[in-house]
Write a structure and sequence with these properties.
Blueprint (H helix, E strand, L loop, with lengths): L7 H15 L3 H4 L3 H8 L4 E10 L5 E12 L5 E7 L5 H18 L5 E6 L8 H15 L8 E4 L6 H15 L22 H16 L9 E4 L4 H12 L3 E7 L2 E5 L7 H12 L14 E5 L12 E3 L9 H9 L4 E3 L8 H12 L5 E3 L1 H4 L2 H15 L5 H26 L10 H19 L5
Parallel strand pairs: 3-4, 3-5, 6-7, 6-10, 10-11, 11-12
Antiparallel strand pairs: 1-2, 2-4, 7-8, 8-9
Helix pairs in contact: 1-4, 3-15, 4-15, 5-6, 7-8, 7-13, 7-14, 8-9, 10-11, 13-14, 14-15
The structure holds NADPH dihydro-nicotinamide-adenine-dinucleotide phosphate.
Length: 450
């Protein structure tokens, strides 16, 4: 089937899914699922709107706002909002498409969606951020609701922005309801939601390490990219489990721990404060001593020998050459905190290394970063029951969900993909097949395809 050629990111995500389905026995056993693929790859609805707001100087500013409501077979549309100057329909369609299958993997009742705006929070005052969030939500609020579509945060959208948007929804619609997740704890938020994507990623990788018989995080060297929500909590959990975190980065460059140096929780907390103020990593107080700052660079070719690599910044942040360097330097586990963190050529390098001696193991974001949306689903459940769970209860459910996703990915890879004796199962294929089956079977039951 054909798609608009001007959607490179969506094409990439679509082709990645299709390639794994084609390389399995799924279509041989169920040729009817080709029809399902054609239907599931077109969004149910796309909303585009104008956002007009006023900056601090009294000037009129205009941005483009979007919500891609991709699939609602499994539940209300669910997926984050991204505020970044690069946001366009191709990026939101890729994110929304992957979100469908990720949400299916969690086993919770959530459809797939994504949205956002080409607004750049950098260099804006807090008042400008508030005015933009309110203007954005005044338009979006017509199209969402606790039983219809429940957005969350993503790049450029954290607790502060969710608060402003929740307030705008409440005033505009005269309703207090669980219409957004990632809310403040006193007004409907869930404990562990801020931590959930990073923690969930680490829980998933713990299963990879154990399954491969390579011990635990203790003593392993971990390269992480990004320094936002996902990277921060990924780093903190790795450190808690006894690993050495050797890198973090942002859109301006990367910080590499030199020699015996390693990021501590105090370092990560300082970086969190810098990022909350929308400042670059050059502001990090240790940047020149133990931590080398390399402007304009990503960490992968600068980290030396690492056991684990966790891309956690943005899409296409690991190239073929960077993947080759990581493999050459002994990486054993690669798992995406970011969505589509690896270029297809990089995935091909990791998947080839999985089949070769030494068995590098790669996990796609659809599976490994599903912890965030999983706890968003638990936040929705708490909002519906008007009852807050303890941190322990949420964390336990998160751990269980990540374990289920891992086991489901293994089971589907083993069931549908031929493998050599002793080869690690493909987590990309297993995750894609498991998510796809769950969604298209629900769509079939509901008459979306036949
Ligand atoms: P944040 O906005 O908190 O942080 C994003 C980080 O990535 C920042 O360090 C930012 O640098 C960096 N970054 C953003 N764009 C680029 C770019 N084009 N090139 C290089 N670096 C970039 O976002 P999150 O941590 O929430 O999201 C990170 C990734 O995780 C995204 O891919 C997102 O889709 C994914 N994700 C997030 C979930 C969540 O719950 N938040 C859930 C599942 C996936 P700078 O500060 O300089 O802009």
């Amino acid at each position: 089937m054909s798609h608009l050629p001007a959607e490179p990111e969506f094409e990439q995500a679509y082709k990645e899914l299709v390639a794994t389905l084609e390389n399995s026995s799924l279509f041989e056993e169920h040729p009817e699922y080709r029809t399902a693929l054609n239907v599931v790859s077109i969004p149910e609805r796309i909303i585009q709107f104008r956002v007009v707001w006023e900056d601090d100087k009294g000037n009129l500013q205009i941005n483009r706002g979007y919500r891609v409501q991709f699939n609602s077979a499994l539940g209300p549309y669910k997926g984050g909002l991204r505020f970044h100057p690069t946001v366009n329909l191709s990026i939101l369609k890729f994110l929304g498409f992957e979100q469908i299958f990720k949400n299916a993997l969690t086993g919770l009742n959530m459809g797939g969606a994504k949205g956002g705006a080409d607004f750049d929070p950098k260099g804006k005052s807090d008042s400008e951020i508030r005015r933009f969030c309110e203007a954005f939500m005044r338009r979006l609020c017509q199209h969402i609701g606790a039983e219809t579509d429940v957005p969350a945060g993503d790049i450029g959208v954290g607790g502060r922005e969710i608060g402003y948007m929740f307030g705008a929804y409440r005033k505009e619609r005269n309703k207090w309801e669980g219409v957004l997740t990632g809310k403040g704890l006193d007004w409907g938020g869930s404990l562990i939601r801020p931590e959930a994507t990073g923690y969930g990623l680490v829980y998933y990788v713990e299963h990879m390490i154990a399954h491969a018989g390579k011990g635990s995080f203790k003593g392993k060297r971990v390269a992480i990219s990004g320094s936002g929500n996902v990277a921060q909590y990924t780093a903190l959990k790795c450190i808690e489990l006894g690993a050495t975190v050797v890198s973090l980065s942002d859109s301006t460059g990367c910080l590499i721990a030199e020699g015996d140096a390693a990021f501590t929780p105090a370092h990560v907390n300082e970086i969190a404060a810098i990022k909350l103020a929308r400042k670059p990593l050059t502001q990090f107080s240790n940047a020149t001593a133990q931590f080398k700052y390399i402007p304009g660079a990503r960490p992968w070719v600068h980290v030396g020998k690492v056991d684990i690599a966790l891309p956690s910044a943005t899409q296409n942040e690991v190239s073929k050459e960077e993947a080759e360097t990581l493999v050459k330097n002994g990486v054993q586990f690669v798992a995406e905190g970011s969505n589509m963190g690896c270029e297809q050529a990089a995935i091909d390098v990791f998947e080839a290394a999985r089949r070769g001696k030494g068995g590098v193991w790669y996990a796609p974001g659809k599976a490994s970063n599903a912890g965030g949306v999983a706890v968003s689903g638990l936040e929705m459940a708490q909002n519906s029951s008007r009852f807050n769970w303890t941190a322990e209860r949420v964390d336990e459910r998160l751990q269980q969900i990540m374990k289920n996703i891992f086991e489901l990915s293994i089971a589907n890879a083993e069931r549908y993909v031929k493998a050599e004796e002793g080869e690690l199962p493909s987590l990309v294929a297993g995750g894609n097949i498991a998510g796809f089956l769950k969604v298209v079977q629900a769509m079939h039951d509901q008459g979306d395809w036949w």
